[in-house]
Every structure is written in structure tokens, then in C-alpha cells.
Amino acid sequence: MHWKIRPRQLASVAILTGLALAIAACGSYGKGYPNSTFNNTTEFNTAIKSLWDTLLFWGTFVFILVEGILLYTVFRFRRRSDADEPQHVHGNTALEIGWTIAPAVILTFIAIPTVRTIFRTQARAVPNALQVEVVGHQWWWEFRYPQFTTRTPTGRVDTLVTANDLYLPIGRTVNFTLRTKDVIHSFWVPQLGGKRDLVSNHTNYLWFTPDTSLRTTVFNGSCNEYCGASHANMRFRTFVVTPTEFDGWVQHQLSPAAFAAAPPAPATPAPADTARAAGAPTRPASASPAPVPVTPAVAVAQQPTGYTFPMESLPDYASPDTPTPAGLSFPDNITGDAQRGAEQFARSACIGCHTIRGTVAASPIGPNLTHIATRSTIAAGIYPNDARHLRLWIKNARMMKPGVAMPTLGLGQRDPVTGATVSQSLGGLSDQQIADIVAYLQALR
Amino acid sequence: MATVAASPTYAGAESGEHTGLWSWLTTVDHKRIGVLYLYTSLFFFLFGGLEAVLIRAQLAGPNKHLVSAETFNQLFTMHGTTMIFLAVMPLSASFFNFLIPLQIGARDVAFPRLNAFSYWVYLFGGLFITLPIFFAAAPDGGWFGYAPLTTRQFSQGVNIDFWVLGLQILGISSLAAAFNFITTIINLRAPGMNLMRMPMFTWMSFVVQFLLVLAFPVITIALFFLQFDRFFGTNFYEIGAGGDPLLWQHLFWIFGHPEVYILILPAFGLVSEVLPTNSKKPLFGYPVMVYSGILIGFLGFGVWAHHMFSVGMGPIADTVFGLTTLLIAIPTGVKIFNWIFTMWGGSIRFTTAMKFAIGLVALFTIGGISGVSHASPPADLQQTDTYYIVAHFHYVLFGGSIMGIFAGIYHYFPKMFGRMMNEKLGSWHFWLNFIAMNLTFFPMHFSGMLGMPRRIYTYDAGQGWETFNLISSIGAFMLVVATAIFVWNFFRSKSSGPLAPDNPWDAATLEWSIPSPPPEYNFAEIPLVESRYPLWDLTHPERTSEIPHTHEGWSDQEKAADAKPVHIERDRRSAKELGIPMPLPTIKPLFVALGIVVMLSGLIFIHKEDKSAAAALIALGAMMIIGFLYAWVTSPLEPDHH
Questions:
Q1: What are phi and psi of A54, to 5 degrees?
Q2: Backbone angles phi, psi at A60, to 5 degrees
Q3: Degrees (nearest 5) of the Cα angle A138, A144, A150?
Q4: Cβ atoms of B428 and A7 closer than 8 Å
Q5: Is residue B386 helix, strand or coil?
Q6: In this complex, which of B366, B382, B442 lies closest to A190 when CB atoms are compared?
Q7: What interhelical angle do A43-76 and B315-343 show, nearest 10?
Q8: Do A88 and B542 touch (CB under 8 A)?
Q9: Active site residue B143
Q10: Pair B117, B595: CB distance under 8 Å
């Protein structure tokens, strides 16, 4: 056989290619990595990064040392002749003591900053910290802000609650209280710091302060403890905003559901001023019509009294591209009516799980929908919050997200869990009814 | 290979009664059981590899939907469970079985029939936990099975039932084998084979057996709690009744971390045989290698909560477990340096086994270094449950355990099957495997630190993970090619490789003093040992002249007769001709093992409306266990010799 490639030569080529790739990877460091853990965005992450730098330094040192000696040994002492007879050393006490002590010394250099960082980052949060309660659900995030409440006309005290969108003010320490309604989840925004688990029957805490050098932006977050079928679909967005913007957001979110009556709305584009027509009290009217349904919120983004992160400037990494399942579609030619949708919502299965403040819908099981139109995504960060995805979602959520608790509601749809076909008697909704409900939801800004 | 004796193969070695399917079902010969372990675990290794390839195919790009979320979750659960319990542990067990009696100069293990029982429990348990994947009912709670996700409330199907019961079954196999090998090593060593003269593989295996005996009862308890929660309505982990999921985590990792050393120490032992042999040098610092192995095993029980730094144990616990974890790096580092200095100044022959052994030293070092980086709890909070961890433990388990086991297979194949493996194909296997392994797992360090969580069946585009995942997937497909070369080499060499001499590698330990493959009785005459390297005493006395040679452990007659220590065994007569009593083959252990599986599988049906299937299976299984166990203990091990 004249095939001359030998595996070792192949290996040399591969190792050189690998090195080139590694160097290329280092060259692009920091670019295009929206979830990178190497940041000085919070004091928590700065502390971790500084530990990591120590670990990386000693790790690289040990790596080069050990692999260097190994390579040298392997090349230097390769067998040249079968007659070679080496010296028969059985051990060397001094050497062995040496390489027992050396790692111990290196480990001390790692242990000291480690212990200091443990106690510093796990100390009690400052007393005036922003409190956020994180509640994990299979598979979505509930964020509660107990310091911000409002009294309903009936005298009930409502807390600011949102789902899958977390807003944090720059420069203020935030103290998270972490709980779960079901299995164990883990709360993680890699850009802002380490993760902490949400453990059933336990309460955990985590705090950090978004650094004042930050500008208004969004980071991705995710669940990091395997929690069942849709573990991969339990994502959220963290909007880090200026204190003024944050105050505006709080005020807006505390306002009642911004819907009284609205004219019939086509699917896309939705009328830009539904909410204003409904007379949302917290936001002064703005004249600019917008091309996409969620944009009206944007129109008031710069207003100090009502703030939502401008969704049209949502970066690519925060805009979900999950493909919709094949075989699930919604006719384009149906126009929804928000008023009819509101009535439909109030007498459908929806109110069995959802809350819309100020309406009959007051169930705490699913995400609070009071200001759903201001959210960046639906289904815990996996679909954009637009008419098309909302309609498909209501029609057959269980096809859109494996294992989800939200039932399949579209008339004639097959529920992938029960295998049953949704009928009128099971509370099934026609395409028109779904379009109406979506028009209503999109009016809830 | 000047003196190739006409080596008999297994089939030819013995009389007709030792061939055919029935002889394999009834065998109590530790060597044949070792071979059964090898075949079975290699099969599961390929199966687990296939699961990994599907995982990598799904993750090759963003938003791919080759398999559903449910299937993916079953795949990663079964990949972990298969590789740990059905591939790497029993691959090690294959070497325990085949090698330990040969290395200590014994004719069999202490309890040959218990040994067969261990194998059959493993086989049936492995099938029990594996087969459901063909019915989309495979376990899907992760190999770590965290409660409360695995309680009935959150996992209503039979998937987790198979996992709980399957692991219980496999635990029986591991425990029975562990007690067997501890008894064997303590009692059946040849005269003069003191503990500090035992080959390093036997030493590391000895440590592993104690880890098994101490760690497995813990997971057995944890699983019993879960089993009772799932089947009989107790509330150990039921959160609605105030159960504490952290109980599961603590129990699981008190088992789970020693388990890591159960997986790696046998590979360390194999490499400690291969490196000196192919360097023409004794192992550097033998006593330190023994002590560091023991120390690793001991410290391994004090570090479990480093798997739990994100659960909120508080600063004191984080500190303690962080520091104990850092400590383990010391004895591990000592081992690495001692291996390198075994080669230093030697005359290194690059057999395929040697390449894999050097590969272990190179790759395990990387896994060790990344391990230190998550021994630091705050740093770990950015690493745990990301692909960085996946990278780390594949460097430890693939770069460590699997490389070591491949080294062992190439090294011991001639002794096991009486034929040589093809070195050229072996070289291709090694280099492809080495490159593909790094291609698969190194990029995971990056994807992890750049925010990619573990155990996600899909991820969105634009997260900065695409390139790394694509490279990983390409590497995984290359691993398939590398493994295919190995399988081809294995079976081709087994049927038509050149016949192996007794001691093809010029090694130093007792297993190489007997024919390849060894006769059923191993040693026609039990060897007498006077140093750590008995065979080199004979063939290369200059290599062992510096270490003490004593007759300590010999009987007075042996001392008085000035008996010749080890000799190259030339006797090819059968056990009967030599008058060596051999244990009788028996089918009973197989049926006891089957009874256990039948009985426990009854629980799968216990929640059915109709309880008769459950009752019938439980009753049948229990009857099988009792009946065959009774027949087993009342039948003699060996034929009468009066």
C-alpha cells in the first residue's frame, strides 16, 4: 500500500489547526458573546472574574509545566534501540516531597482569595436594597417587587408582578429572594454574576449591584438546573435601566390594565393608539403611529412617567428565533376585536390561571397578564410577543412548548398531551375568538 | 516476538464441555466472566456513544429539532447512566475479574459463583434500564435524578420507575463484586505477595472495592426513599408534605463523588502497569502511588457538596467543601508527576497501549486543572451546570477513564484472547480518538463560560455558541470513526491476529508468567513471590536489584526448600490431569439474578388498576430467588475429591 499518511502526521496537522483556532477564538474575545461570564458589570461578577483570572493564571502555568515536561520526556526518552537499558530509579524522596508541596503552595494562592470572596459575596445585602422575589415555575419566571404596591378600588393591595422580564435599576443593589413553586430551578444571568438555585421548601438569596458604568441594555437569563421537559425553554430577559427609567417602569406597571374599549383591530399592523384611545392614565398621548403591535409602548419610552424598554431596539441575541411547529398555523385574514376579546377572555378558560388586575381574572397559577403587551417575549423567552405568536400560542401552546401547563385551546386542535381533540364543550376557541383575545392582550400595555 | 508458543484459544484450551452457549451461561471462571463483562460493557459503551451522537447532532446548530425535547431528555439521562453504570464501571469490572486473581497469583476469586451472579445481575439490570428507550419510556430525570423532579408528582410516567429500580439492581451487582474482590485480595495472595508488593492495578482496584462498599449503600438508601415515595406513598422528597429535596442531593453526592474515583482509579491502575512496562523501568515512587490512591479514595468522601455550591448552603459549608476539594488536587498531582518520572530516563516503546496511557496523563491533567477552577465556590457559580462542567468531566472520564481502559484493552488483549491486536490500526484509533476527543470537548470550555447551560435540548441563534457547538459535533462524529476502527481491530485481531506469546510486552507481574490465554486453573503451581516485580526478578534482575527481596510470607517448608520463586509456566496440561479441583459450572446464579429483576419489575405495574400482573411478577421473582438461592447454597462448589 502506498498510502503514506501516518496517524502521527495527521495529528501534527490537527494540533496546529487547533492552535490556530484557539488563537482565532482568543482574538475574537468579547465580540459576539452576549452571554459571556467575564464581566465587571456587578461587584459580584467582578469578584468572580478576579478569582477566575487567578485560577486561569495558575491553571495555565500548571498546564504548560506538566504538558511541557511530559512532551519533553516522551520525545527525549523514546526507545532508539531494543537493547537500551535505562537506569532503574525506583523513586526520589526529595523530588516527591517537592511535587507534593508545590501544588499545596499554588492551592494556597487560590484558597485565600476564594475564602475571602465567599464571605464577601454571601454577606447580607445592604438594607436599602431593591427587593425582588424570584419565583420559579415549570417553565417560566415570576418576578415580584414587594416594595412597590398599589391599592385597587376594592381596597386590595397588589404587588408589582411581572413574568420573564426583569427590570433592574443601574447603581442600586438588588437583593433576590429565590423560591420555587415546584421543582428545583436555577436563576442565572451570566452577564451579571453567578447563579443560585431555587430549591423547593427553601428560600435562597442572591444580591449584586449593576455597575454605574452600565448603559440601558438587556441581558439574557436562563434556568440552569434541569427541571423537566422544557428546561431549555425557561429563559428570561433582564433589562438594566437608569434609575429614572426604572421609576417610570414601576409607575407604569403599577397602573391598572390599560384597556377599557377599543375599536376592532387588524392583526398586523395593530392600531398604534389602542391604549391611548383607552386613556391609559399614566402615559401622555404620543402622536407617532408605529408599524408593529408592541411599538406603542415604545412611543412613550422616553417619557419619564411610563417606561418600557424600546422593543424595536431589542438586540438580536434577545430576540427569540424559535421556529413555530410545523402543522400549526393561523389564517392571516382574521381581524381581532379587542373589546370582544376582553369579554371572551373573561368567560374562557383563561381566567382559570391568569390575572389581569382590575378584571375578573385573578388566578395566580400562570403569568400575570396585566401589562402583557409591554413584555419582550412570550412563553418564557422563546417566542416574540407579537400577534402571530400569541395567536398560535393560544391555539395550541402544547405544540409550541413541550410539557407546558397551558392547555391547547384552538377548536379542532389535537392536544399533544391528552391526545384529545379540543371541542366546544372543552372550552375550545375559534380562530376568530383567539384573534379577539390576542387583540385584547395586545392592548394591555 | 521470537518465541511464540502455540497458544490455545479459549475454545481449544479445554475439553468440549467448555464451549458453546451453555458453558458461557454457567461459567464460574473469573477469566470468562471478565470476558463477558468486557463484551457487555463494550456493547453498552457503543450504545451510550450512539446516544451521545444523537445529542451532538441535535446541538450541532441552533434551534434544531432532530429529536423532541422529551427524547433529548431521555437521551442525555441514558447517556450518563449508561456510560457510568453500564460502560465504565463494568469495563473496570472486566479487568478486576480477569486480572486481580492473575496478578496476585490466585486460581480464582474467593467466591466464583457470586462472581457469576454479579455479572448476570449487571447484564439483566443493564437491559432493564436500557430497553425502555425503544418504547420512548426511558428515564428522563438526568443521571443524578434530582428530587422533587423525580417524585411521582412531577414525573408520573414509568420512566423514573425504570431508573430507580434499575440502579437498585445494578447496585446489588457492584456490592456483591466488591465484597468478592476484597475477600480475594485479602485472602488469596500467593506466598510472598505482600500488600506492598501487589501490582498497582490490584492496589487501585482494592481501593475501589472499599469505595464501592462504602458509597453504594448511600445511594441505595437514597433510592429506597425515592422508591417508597413513588410506590408506597411515603414523603421523603414529596415537597407538598414538607419533604426536603436537599436530602436527595446530599445522599446522591455522598455516593456520587466517590463514584468518580470508582470510575477513574482502575484506569489509574491500568496506566500504572502500562507505563513502567513500556519504559523498561519500575514504577516511580511505588509507595507514594499506593498512598496517594488511598488518600484520593479517602478524601473523595469529604468533598461531595462541591456539586452543590449553587444550592445555598451558606459560606461555612462552601468554604469547607471548597478547601477539601482543593486538597484532592495534591495526591492527584503526585500521581501525574510519578507517572511522568516513571518514563523519565526510560526507554519508551510506543505501543498502542502506551500511547493511550500517555494520552491519559496529558488529558487527565487538563481535567484536573479545570476541576480546581470549580473547587473555588464563587468561581463555580459561573461554571456549574454549564458546558464548562461537561468539558471538565469528559476530560476526566473520557480523557482519564476511557483512555486508561483502552490502554488496558490493548495491553491485556493478548493475555485475554491469546492473540495480538493490530498495532497499526491501534495507532489510527489512538490518534483519531485523541484529536476527536479534544475537538469534541475542548470547545465546551468556551461555550460554557460564554453562558451555555447544560441539558438544554435546543438553543437560540445569536448566543455566541454556534461555532463551538458545531466543532463539538464534528468531533463527536470523528469519535464514531475512531471507535469503529477499534471495534474492527478488536474482532479482526481476536479471530486472526498473530498468536500471542506468554509475555509479549516484557512485563514484570505474575499474569505474564502463564500462557496466553491462561489455562482455566491459571497457575499450575502457585508462584512464590520475593519482590514487587516477580517476573523481572527472573528476566531482568538488574531492574529490580535495588528493591528488597525477602521471603516474607512464605511458609516454613517453602523457605526451607529454598523453593525457586516465579517461573515461566510451561505446563499445558488440563486441571484434571494436574489434579487441581475447579469449581463446577452452574446456572443457578443466573436464575437468582433473573429472579431479582423479575421481582422488581413487578413494581412497574403496581399502579395499574389490575394488580394481578404486579403480584404475579413479584411472586414469581421471589420464588426464583428463594428456590435457586437454596439450590445454590446447598450444592457443592467443587466436585468431591476423596
A1: -60, -45
A2: -65, -40
A3: 140
A4: yes
A5: strand
A6: B382
A7: 10
A8: yes
A9: yes
A10: no
Amino acid letter for position A225: E
pLDDT at B4: 40
B68 and A402 within 8 Å at the Cβ level: the answer is yes
Cβ distance of A317 and B464 shorter than 8 Å? yes
The residue in chain A having the minimum alpha-carbon distance to the alpha carbon of residue B71 is: A229
For A73, nearest residue in chain B (alpha carbons): B344
The single residue of B161, B259, B380, B502 carrying the catalytic annotation is: B259
Cβ-Cβ contacts under 8 Å, A18 against chain B: 438-439, 442
Q: A224 vs B384: CB contact, 8 Å cut-off?
A: yes
B272 carries an active-site annotation: yes
CA atoms within 13 A on the CB side of B623: 6
Note the pTM of the prediction, 2 decimals. Answer: 0.91
Sign of CA dihedral A113, A116, A122, A124: negative
Distance CA B345, CA B624 (A): 59
B310 is catalytic: no
Distance from C-alpha of A88 to C-alpha of B537, rounded to nearest angstrom: 13
Nearby residues of B56 by Cβ (< 8 Å), 6 or more positions away: B440, B472, B473, B476, B477
Residue of B nearest to A10 (CA): B431
In this complex, the residue of A52, A100, A107 whose CB is nearest that of residue B379 is A52
Give the pLDDT score at A301.
Answer: 35
Q: How many C-beta atoms lie closer than 10 Å to residue B408's C-beta?
A: 27
Q: Is B512 a catalytic residue?
A: no
Give the model confidence (pLDDT) of A92-116 as tens digits.
889 999 999 999 999 999 999 999 9
The predicted model gives A188-195 an average pLDDT of: 96
B163 in active site: no
Angle at B341 (CA atoms; ends B540, B361), nearest 5 degrees: 110
Is residue B259 annotated as part of the catalytic site, yes or no?
A: yes
Q: Is the pLDDT of residue A431 over 90?
A: yes
**Phi, psi of B238, deg, nearest 5:** -70, 110
* Closest-approach residue (CA) in chain A for B383: A194
Annotation marks residue B79 as catalytic: yes
Question: Residue A196: phi, psi to the nearest 5?
Answer: -145, 135
Residue (of B387, B533, B367, B532) closest to B464 by Cα position:
B387
Query: Among residues B113, B152, B189, B307, which one is catalytic?
Result: B307
Long-range contacts at B387-391 (CB < 8 A, ≥ 24 apart): B387/B444, B387/B445, B387/B447, B387/B448, B387/B452, B387/B453, B387/B454, B388/B444, B388/B445, B388/B448, B388/B449, B389/B448, B389/B454, B390/B441, B390/B444, B390/B448, B390/B454, B391/B441, B391/B442, B391/B443, B391/B444, B391/B445, B391/B448
Eight-class DSSP state of A42: B
* CB-CB neighbors (< 8 A) of B375 in chain A: 110
Q: DSSP E strands: which ranges in A280-338?
A: 336-337
- DSSP letter string, A411-434: TT-B-TTT-PBP-GGGT-B-HHHH
pLDDT tens-digit readout, A26-54? 555 556 899 999 989 999 999 999 999 99
Mean residue pLDDT across chain A = 86
Query: What residues have CB less than 8 Å from B338, skipping those under 6 apart?
Result: A96, B283, B284, B285, B288, B289, B292
* DSSP label of B397: I
Reply yes or no on whether the pLDDT at A394 is more than 70: yes
CB contact under 8 A, B239 and A201: yes
Please indicate whether, in this complex, the C-beta atoms of B314 and A122 are within 8 angstroms of each other.
yes
Please determine, for residue A284, whether its predicted confidence score (pLDDT) is greater than 50. no
Q: Please identify which residue in the block is written with the cell numbers 395586545.
A: A442
Q: pLDDT at position A5, please?
A: 67
Counted residue by residue, chain B has a size of 642
* pLDDT surpassing 60 at residue B597: yes
Q: Which three cell numbers stand for residue B471?
A: 466543532
Q: Is the pLDDT of residue B135 over 50?
A: yes
